[in-house]
Amino acid sequence: MLRGPGRLPGPFACVVAGALVLGSLGACSSEPQAAACPGQYNPSKLSDRALRRENIGKLPERGATTQSHVERTLAQRHGWIEANYPGVVDVKVDDGWGVTYTRDQYGDITFHHAPDFLIETTVAKRRDCPDPERGTLLIFGPEGLRVPVRFVYQPA
Asked: How far lies 27's CA from each of 11, 30, 55, in Å?
């Protein structure tokens, strides 16, 4: 490698070039991106006003979507998901909707917006997606709190 004014030292240039090559490999990955199954609920972009019009049964309570609670729920329910949904190829903890709620002693609801987690279930093909008419799947975790399950599929 040439050295001199305006030139990078040899080892540093190799590190920079290697980082650029490795960074571009991830962007050009041949692995297809998962697509959301039809009918999947996602309240992440809804305002509190819009959330008040939603069916509260579609949302998890605060505390249900912490990473540790979702991991424990997945450990408990992994087999149930695979047994009840055909074509499952992967089940994992992933980034959630970022919306939970609490209800006070008077029944008033407060929405909380913060990063959280859910269970993501990947099925092999779009035809393996759950029927959208079945609604949003929330499964009970160890403390009786419901955890959302997002279904995705690998497009052909």
From this structure: 25, 9, 38
d(CA 137, CA 151): 9
How far apart are alpha carbons 91 and 79 in whole angstroms? 10
Distance between CA atoms of residues 86 and 46, nearest Å: 31
Q: For residues 40 and 150, what is the distance between their CA atoms, to the nearest angstrom?
A: 7
Instruction: Give me the tens of pLDDT residue by residue for the chain, a chain 156 residues long.
Output: 444 444 444 544 443 344 444 444 444 545 568 899 998 999 999 999 999 998 888 999 999 999 999 999 999 999 999 999 989 999 999 999 999 999 999 999 999 999 999 999 999 999 999 988 777 899 999 889 999 999 999 887
The closest alpha carbon to 77, from 146, 139, 143, 148, belongs to 139
Which CA distances in Å does 39 have to 17, 23, 96, 112, 129? Answer: 44, 34, 16, 24, 10
